[in-house]
Amino acid sequence: MEDLKTTLDLDDLVNLETIFIEIGREDGLKNGIKSGALEGQVLGCEKGYELLNEIGFYDGVTEMWLKILEKGLDIHNAKKPINERLIKQLTSLRELISTYPIENQQNVEFLDLLNKIRSKYKVCTSLLGVANSQKFKKISSEFNVGDQGINDSTNTHGGNMNF
Question: Which superkingdom does the taxonomy of this entry point to (predicted)?
Answer without folding.
Answer: Eukaryota
